[in-house]
Amino acid sequence: MNMRTQVAIVGGGPSGLLLSQLLNRAGIETVVLERRSRAHVLARIRAGVLEWGTVELLRRAGAGDRMDREGIVHDGCWLSADGEMFRIDFRESCGVGVMVYGQTEVTKHLYAAQDALGASHRHEVEDVVLHDLDSDAPRVTWREGGQAHALRCDFVAGCDGFRGVSRRSIPESVRQEFEKVYPFGWLGVLSRTPPVQDELIYASHARGFALASLRNPQLSRYYIQVPVETRVEDWSDDAFWEELRRRLPEEIAGTLVTGPAIEKSIAPLRSFVSEPMRWGRLFLCGDAAHIVPPTGAKGLNLAASDVHYLSRALIGFYRSGDAEGLDRYSDTALARVWKAMRFSWWLTTLMHRFPHHGPYERRMQDIELAVLREQPAARRMMAENYTGLPY
Ligand code: APR
Ligand code: PHB
Fold first, then answer.
1. Residue 79 · residue 372 · CB < 8 Å
2. Given 75, 97, 240, 351, which is the most exposed site by the fewest CB atoms within 10 A?
3. What pLDDT shows up at residue 35?
4. What is the pTM of this model?
C-alpha cells in the first residue's frame, strides 16, 4: 500500500509518541511506525524521575492530567556515603523540584492522548527501510502482516531507540560516535512495598552503589550495582534485599520493608552519543542518538528536550516555511545532550565502585562527596542539573 504523510515517525516509544502528539496538536500529520505491539511497549519498566521541563512539556502535549494527580513532587534527594546521609535540597538550591512518576505510565498516557486525536499508528512493522533522506522527497518502506508498504513524507523522525534503523541510515562517513561502557550494571527490583524513604537515596558504599527509589506510596524501586557479567537468575529476592540493606545507611536499612519482586532485571551502564542528529531530511530523537547511564535519570528527559526542539522547528517550518529551526536542530539538541552526558557521567563516577580504582580515585570520590555536603555552590550545580537545565 502506498501512503503519504507530513512527518513519518519511526519508533513508538516515549520520543515518537510525544513528537507525534505535539505535531498532531499543531495540525501536522504523522504516521508512527513501531516494530512491537502496543502491549509490549507498555510492558517496559524504565526510570521514574521527570525534570520540570518534561512535566511542562507533557502538560502542553495534553498528556499530563493523571501525572498531575498521581505524580509526587520531590524537592530534594539524599546522598549517602558509607552510612552517612545528607540531603540536596533542590528547591532551596535552584527553585524547582522534580516529579516522581513512572515512564511506563507516561507512555500509557501518550498512547491514550494519541488515540483521542485519532493519530495514525502502525504496530508490528518489520524491515523498516529509510530511502532518499538526502532528497526533498524521502520515503519509508516496511512489511506488515506479510505485505509491503511505502510511505512518502516531507521528513523522517528517527525515534527508534539505540538499536533502531534510523541512526544507521546516516552514512558512516558522516557519523561520529562517542561511547563509554561502564564495567558494571544495575540490578533493579520493583516491589509492592512502601518505599523505605519518601525521597530518593543515592548510596555510595564499599560494596557498590545502591539506589532507593519509588513509584508511589505502595510501590518501591530499588537498584544495586553488580558486575557486568551478572545474570538475574544469580540473585534470589532474599539475596537482593540482604545486599541492599548492607549498602543503605543503617538507620534506613532497619526500616526497609521487603516483599516479592514483581520485576527484576539488569541494565548495563553505557554513555553514547552519535553526531550529527540530523542528516538531510532525517532527524534523530532520544535513544536513537544517545544513551545515558541511569544515574540521574536523564534518558526520558533528554528524549523530551530533543522532541521539544524538533517539534518547535517543524511547527515553525510548516507555519512560515522557515527552515532555520530545522537547520539548527542538531547543534541545539546536542548542546543540551552533552551537558546531561556530563552530569550522568559525573554522578555515575562519583557514586560507583570501579574495579580499576586505586586509593587515589577512592579518596577523590570521598572528597567530592564532602564538597557537596559542605559547599552550597556544589549542591546548586547538582540541583540545577538534576532538576533539568533550561531548554
Ligand atoms: N522499526 C520500528 N520501530 C523500531 C525499530 C525499527 N527498526 N527499532 C526499534 N523500534 C522501536 C522500539 O520497539 C521502541 O518501542 O522504537 C522504540 C524506541 O523506544 P525507546 O527505546 O524507549 O527510545 P525513546 O523513545 O527514544 O525513549 C527514550 O525512554 O524508553 C526510554 O530508555 C529510554 O529513557 C529512554 C527514553
Ligand atoms: C527509578 O526510579 O527507576 C530511577 C530513579 C532515579 C534514577 C534512576 C532510576 O537515577
1. yes
2. 75
3. 98
4. 0.97
Pocket test for ligand 1, best of 160, 285, 290, 344 (most atoms within 8 A of CB): 160
Tell me which residue range forms the domain holding 186: 182-268+354-387
Query: Tell me, what's the pLDDT at 83?
Result: 82
pLDDT for 1: 85
Give the per-residue pLDDT at 44.
83
For residue 289, pLDDT beyond 80:
yes
Same domain for 321 and 227, yes or no, is no
Residues 382 and 238 in one domain: yes
Site residues for ligand 1, CB cut-off 6 Å: 10-16, 33-36, 41, 46, 103, 125, 128, 159-161, 163-165, 286-288, 299-300, 303
Kindly report the average pLDDT of the chain as a whole number: 97
Closest residue by CA, ligand 2 atom 2: 48
Q: Answer yes or no: is 313 within a domain.
A: yes
Report how far ligand 2's centroid is from the alpha carbon of 213 (Å): 6
Residues 262 and 275 in one domain: no
Indicate whether 329 belongs to any domain: yes
C-alpha cell at 159: 525515534
DSSP 33: E
Domain count, the chain: 2
Triad 6, 303, 271: Cα angle to 5°: 130
The helix or strand, by DSSP H or E, that contains position 66, with its residue range, turns out to be: helix 65-70
Which residues are identified as catalytic?
74, 202, 294, 298, 386
Q: Model confidence over 344-385: pLDDT tens digits? A: 999 999 999 999 999 999 999 999 999 999 999 999 999 999
- Of 44, 45, 46, 49, the one to substitute when testing ligand 2's pocket (max ligand atoms within 8 A of C-beta) is 49
Using alpha carbons, list the distances in angstroms from residue 43 to 18, 104, 108, 288: 18, 7, 10, 20
78 occurs within a structural domain: no
Pairing of strands 201-204, 210-216: antiparallel
Nearest CA to ligand 2 atom 1: 47
Residue 84 lies in a domain: no
